[in-house]
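Running this now, will post back.
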Amino acid sequence: QMRLQESGPGLVKPSQTLSLTCTVSGGSITTNNYWWHWIRQPPGKGLEHLGTIGYSGDTTVSPSLKSRTTIPRDTSKNQFTLHVSSVIPEDTAVYYCASDVSWGQGTQVTVSS
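Update: finished.
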């Protein structure tokens, strides 16, 4: 059974970089035709898809965050990561990593000084 687990700091100061890691078990991030996603839900709002990294390492990022966001991966650790630079309070949200078949439980990130 595939499982995904987000990890990272729960509090980030404005202008700093938010970094979250998703650790995958029960499946490989290099498996053909699997795509891996970062999604967030700000308080009181709907889900927002942030970006995707594919099995080959290709990435796509939401246009609204493209200038601030990267999604690298570490295949040796079966992990992929979200970096969002120059964060603002509006980046406060529950962040999820997901595959096409499974989601992590989510982690709260608050942007505040």
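The two ends are 39 Å apart (CA to CA). More later if anyone needs it.
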